[in-house]
Amino acid sequence: MKRFIIVLITSIAFQSFSQVSYDFSDALPIDESPISSVSSSDFGIYFSENKETKYIFDAQGIWIETTIFNSISKDTIRESSKYTVRNGYIFGVVLNDSLPCVLDENRYHFGLKVREQVAGGTSKNVLKKLKGSSYIINYNENDGYTPSLFTLVGKTLTIQYFDYETGTTIFDVIAQQSSKKVQGMNYISLAPTKKEWKGIDIAKLFGDKVVYFKN
C-alpha cells in the first residue's frame, strides 16, 4: 500500500510540473531596444530542406512563407462553376490567379503559398538583437511574449524555439512571477530585471536547432 501511495504521489507531482507554461511579460533581451529588421548583411531568403517553408529577411522585417497542400475531388470540380482545370492549372482557388495541380486518385492536388510577416511592419511580435548575428523574435501571445532564437551564419539560418525541461528551475532567479490557472494549466508570466536576465543560461531556454539554407 505504501509503495502504491508513493507512486501515486510521484505521478501527481509529475503531472503538476507538466501543467506549467511560461512566458515573459517583456520582450527579450531586457537590456536591448526593439529593431524593425536584421542587419543588411543578413538579408536574404532561407529555405527549409524540403523547400516547403522559407524565411525572408529584408529592410521591411522578417517574413515566413509556407506551402499548404490541399486537394479537390474531380467530381466537385465537374459539378461546380467555381473551379476549372486547364493544362495542369486549377482556377478558382485563388482570386484572379491559378495554381499548378496534379490529378491523383480522382483528386486534384495543389499547394497554396501563405505569407506572413513575423517581425517589423504592423506585426505585434518584437525583434531584438542578442549578439552578433543572433536575434530573438518575441512572439506576442496572450498578453505576453514567447521567445525564439534566430541565428544567421554564412548561408545558414538556425531557429531554436522556446523550450525547457519539465520541472525546470532556471527561472527561480526571477523574483517577479505572476501566475494564473486556466482549465488545469498554470500560466506563469516572468518579469526579469536586467540583472536577473544576465543570470539566466540562455542555452537552456531554447530547444533543438531547425536549419534553413540561403538561396
Please give the order of strands in the largest beta sheet.
5-6-7-8-4-3-2-15-12-11-10-9
Tally the helices. Answer: 3
Radius of gyration: 23 Å
Oligomer: single chain
Structural class: mainly beta
Helix content: 10-25%
- Beta strand %: over 45%
SSE succession: HEEEEHEEEEEEEEEEHE
Which residues sit in consecutive blocks of at least 5 with pLDDT less than 50? Answer: 2-18
Number of strands: 15
Q: Summarize the main sheet.
A: 12 strands, antiparallel
Number of domains: 2
Average pLDDT value? 90
The best one-word shape is elongated
| Head-to-tail CA distance between termini | 63 Å
Main features:
three-stranded mixed sheet, twelve-stranded antiparallel sheet, mainly beta, single chain, 3 helices, 215 residues, 15 strands
In short:
With 215 residues, this protein is mainly beta.
